[in-house]
Amino acid sequence: MLRDRREILIYTAGIFDGEGHVGVYARDALKRSFRLKLGITSTNGNLIGFLIEHFGGSFSQLSGEASRNLRCYQWELSFVKAGEFLEEIYPFLLIKQEQVKLAILFQSGQHVRRKTQEQIELCRWICKQMKALKKEGV
Q: Which end of the chain is more exposed for a tag (fewer CB within 10 A), N or C?
């Protein structure tokens, strides 16, 4: 049984390192608007319940080829909650630290309603870097 917030964060960081995904995605074809999205996929419904209880978010049940005929769930967070979650687990990550560092950098600039061209270019650069890290398996 996990006793305190630190233990919960350490446990969750381990799960996220192995089963999680994080990305910054363009919302439009011109790549001028972006969003942060993350999730964890698991066949264990209790794990998904644990994540929702401690971090909020939503879940969906995957079907078809993605689930390989197993009952498979995907927990998701986006926007502000995703940034807060990543900041909390960041110190305990081993594998996805670089991806999460980029995601936190992205989210830190999302309070601005109208972005300058320089801010848009930074978001595009973050997207490109995230894709490269994923290809490397980092």
A: N
